[in-house]
């Protein structure tokens, strides 16, 4: 019995010691020092520059045939063909007899009589040059400015002449040769890789759209060096992309 009491007392003493040895929770420790920032990454390389509209072969150099207006500069004014020489004045015709006055017709809708387009059918054409007489379009070409667009038969795309043709593999040039009785226009096709002639196979082209703008039109009143420059400057100022035939046609009220 004595042994049992001693054992019980020992257990109670141990319990009291355990209770007395359990202290209160300590305060939180101080935060550590933040780590250093990582090193910035290397900047990416700049992208390649685009190709200027006058740079027909895309080599970044002003070549002789690319100075279309022959002013010694290579700029946006070289993106259009050179004006042809004025043709010789024709002889005055014989006055005809006065006709009988007709009845007045009904008023029509307002139109743009100073701007029109002419379509030259190119179906069945093949070769590396297109030649035609602008006198088939107007009888007095010196009084007009012209914009030319070749329509691709396969993709129905309008390619501004002179400029890129069917993407970036080929390009076109434009020349006027005015004589006393004719005003020939020559459109040439070339490969960008080596400036060699490009042969257009039959069935590749559909038509040539010729936009004729008379000098009396508002866009030709800027008094610049040529009617072509007047048109290009006016379209640029109006935010119209000359390479987009539909935008040009809409601007002049042709569609």
Q: Key terms for this structure?
A:
single chain, alpha+beta, elongated, Collagen-like protein, 3 helices, four-stranded antiparallel beta sheet
Helix content: 10-25%
Low-confidence segments, ≥5 residues, pLDDT <50? 6-22, 99-112
Percentage of β-strand residues: 15-25%
Which series of helices and strands comes N to C?
HEEEEEEEEHH
Q: What Rg is obtained from the alpha carbons, in whole angstroms?
A: 41 Å
Molecular shape = elongated
Whole-number mean pLDDT: 76
Can you list the strand order of the major beta sheet?
Answer: 1-8-3-4
Give me the secondary-structure category. alpha+beta
C-alpha termini separation: 123 Å
Total count of strands: 8
Major sheet details: 4 strands, antiparallel
> What's the helix count?
3
Region (Disordered): 62-106
Protein name: Collagen-like protein
Keywords: Signal
Biased composition (Acidic residues): 64-73
Write a brief structural summary:
15% of the residues lie in helices and 22% in strands. It has a domain at 64-84 and 112-251.
């Amino acid at each position: 019995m004595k042994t049992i009491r001693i054992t019980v007392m020992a257990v109670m003493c141990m319990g009291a010691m355990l209770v007395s040895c359990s202290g209160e929770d300590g305060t939180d420790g101080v935060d550590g020092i933040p780590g250093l920032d990582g090193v910035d990454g290397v900047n990416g390389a700049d992208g390649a520059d685009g190709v200027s509209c006058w740079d027909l072969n895309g080599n970044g150099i002003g070549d002789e045939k690319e100075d279309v207006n022959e002013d010694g500069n290579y700029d946006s004014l070289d993106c259009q063909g050179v004006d042809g020489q004025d043709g010789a004045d024709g002889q005055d015709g014989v006055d005809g007899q006065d006709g009988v006055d007709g009845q007045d017709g009904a008023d029509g809708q307002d139109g743009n009589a100073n701007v029109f387009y002419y379509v030259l059918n190119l179906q069945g054409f093949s070769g590396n040059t297109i030649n035609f007489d602008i006198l088939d379009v107007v009888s007095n070409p010196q009084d007009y400015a012209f914009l030319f667009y070749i329509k691709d038969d396969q993709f129905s795309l309008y390619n501004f002449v002179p400029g890129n043709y069917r993407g970036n593999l080929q390009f076109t040039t434009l020349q006027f040769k005015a004589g006393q009785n004719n005003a020939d226009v020559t459109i040439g096709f070339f490969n960008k890789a080596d400036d060699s002639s490009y042969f257009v196979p039959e069935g590749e082209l559909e038509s040539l759209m010729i936009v004729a703008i008379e000098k009396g039109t508002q866009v030709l009143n800027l008094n610049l060096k040529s009617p072509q420059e007047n048109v290009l400057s006016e379209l640029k100022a109006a935010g119209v992309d000359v390479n987009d035939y539909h935008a040009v046609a809409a601007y002049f009220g042709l569609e």
